[in-house]
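Let's do one together. I've listed all components of the complex below, 835 residues spread over two lines.
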Amino acid sequence: MTLDRRSFLGAAALLTASPVLFAQAATERRFVFIIQRGAADGLNAVIPYAEPAYARLRGALAVDPESALKLDGTFALHPSLPKLRELYAAGEASFFHAVASPYRDRSHFDGQNVLETGGSAAYQVKDGWMNRLVGLLPRRGKDAIAFSPAVPMALRGPIEVTTYAPSALPQANDDLMLRVEQLYAKDSLLHALWSSALDARGMAGEMSGSEKRQDPPALGRIAAGFLARTDGPRIAMIETTGWDTHSGQNARLAAQLKGLDNLIAALRDGMGSAWSQTVILVATEFGRTVAANGTGGTDHGTGAAAMLVGGAVQGGRVIADWPGLSSASLHDGRDLKPTLALDRLMASASAEAFGLEPERTARVLFPDSVRGQSMQKLLRA
Amino acid sequence: MRASAIALNRFGLGARPDDPSPPEPQRWLLSQFDAYEPIPGPWKPLPRSSALVETWLVQQRAARQAPEGQRSGIREAYLRQGRDAYIAAVGARTSSALQSSTPFVERLVHFWSNHFAVSVDKLLVVGLAGGFEADAIRPNVLGRFEDLLLAVVRHPAMLLYLDQAQSIGPSSLAGMRAGERQQRPRGLNENLAREILELHTLGVRSGYTQSDVTEFARALTGWTLPGDDALQPATNTFRFVPALHEPGARTVLGRSYADGGEQQARAIIHDLVTAPATAHHIARKLARHFVADDPPTELVQRLTSTFERSGGDLPSLYRELLASKEAWQPASAKFKSPWDWALSSFRALGRQEIPAAQAANLMNQLGQPVWRPGSPAGYDDLTATWAAPDSLLRRIEVAQRIAMQAGTAVDARSLATRVLPGSLSDDTASAIARAESASTALALLLVSPEFLRR
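Okay, and this is what the predicted structure of the assembly comes out as:
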């Protein structure tokens, strides 16, 4: 079809009148990263119940295989993850075990920095891998959002990212807002923050007051409210905390996992038809010790579990090159040995989600990591 | 910014409308060392740590002796009481900051309290967090780093927060007995040892290994709270229990420490404090807090050598900072944290106190709840953390609310020149002058680019 000037103007006017059309994305896929801050215990989330050393090393922390939700002959989910078990049965969830970023020490803060920057050592890379991922997509604005008051490291970088967290404060009046806008016009930092905040609040304006709370189901509904929109963000990050279970692990981990299960279920329910385009990655900075410690908990470890969940996921699988838990096979004699690079999983899932070339994607997101085969067919075609 | 505005805003908690602009800014800051009150008025009515520990012990004893069915009720009652104590302490902290005439030293209290962070999202800590700041931090910010560190790691809030109170040497008397009776396994917990090395002293990636962490954790076994079986009220808030202590010599960072009971971990701590990595870690953090996210290398070097030369004498460190030209650069390099911003806003209005529950709630809404950083690293100290879209909007909402409460009593035009002496921009001055109402003018002052930074 060719357009003369008159009909072109007509079409442009039509597009302006319906911004939804105008903003139509080059991609329909949604990619959500749920970070588990504090080193989530992969061995009690995705439990190697058939491994004889598990019950012995975990002692009172071992989950009874009778109550665990079986995935296959080797692995089972913690009883607090029933909705993830349903998603697995529906072919919409895969679990990955013995995964780790390149980081091998045991500091949360350094570990999270490596996980979020995509570097091979802490503080080597100055921006986040998700910000670089946004840079690989066709730009349309409002591409990425963090559901937290501040921008987490993974999304920091040259590309503007918005943040949204529900607030109980009364909104400022329009007159003040207008004057603040003028006041920030010459301040590059404040001006950028300001525009971005207004966009996010505009989208959230359509939600009811009762949804502006922050328990996991509410957070899931809020995030879905943004992500389900045709003109909404395509890349999002949700932060979860409280995974550092040095003591009283049984009750604490059960509550944490229940929160995660409900968060993901609320996302699924809220996404509607966009669920079939959705990929959720769940990962943590490192795992926890295989053996229980002396105080009913576990200490900082190495290998952990990760998850891919969503309607676009080629699920129903547990993917692991299982190293075993015998004392000879442990990393440093105490931790689950990592056999699958988390970087590779994250790069492969990102590339597949957006139809990007896998090698190039891996180089941009994780510039320092050792290259290997990219993982294939993580998602539905 | 002029030097007097720097003294008030960069090193203080923000100017109050009736504060005279200090004619000799550096001398004014230094004079605060003598005028500082460790326990000022707002803290005085609050129970001290010994009383808080006594309450905790009474609860432990009651729960132990009660029939199974009543225990959760006892615990809940204690937690309710703890939440009340937390709110009251947030109120005391806020009022002290608003009323203080030694705002530089108050800032140092907040700095150290965050460096040695406890977080009340661990419920056991809720009732003790205020006592931690009052008794471990406040009396020691003008002393030696080693004394401050010891007060911190021996305080019940820290012992509970980082699980030290439950750590037991596997070959200690208690550990062996538990093993014999086939009780639920109890033993070593390395959390406190790791965070002392990583966060409190040497800093991460400074060369210690997993084995140093474990060895230090073994040396620390026995450091715990007073027992709940004592018949007398607890007068002490710390106890060393030889039966929990792992026997034997320990090796940390290549140095061997003979078994000396409680003294063993103290000797390790002493060596950690005198390690060059600790001097550098503290110097850099202090410079980052007051001067810039990425502080000048020469400044950090000078502070490092002052720390080393003075044996960790904190006032020497502060004096070196104040004597440094880098600290007095006119441009404001730091974006205020929500806590600093809220305090400077209330101080600008001359507020003397905020109802305790309101202060606690406000900090939740601004994204920096008091004593709840969520991790032992505390809140970080970078523009990128606090200058985010949503948190900026919240400041604007809060500014509007504060300004409406102040009503028409405040003339933002004259207030602006008093709280930002010599550093008010023309743009902000004219935005304030043109505002449609007194409260909008005041809100604009509080969210202006120069008021958000220091």
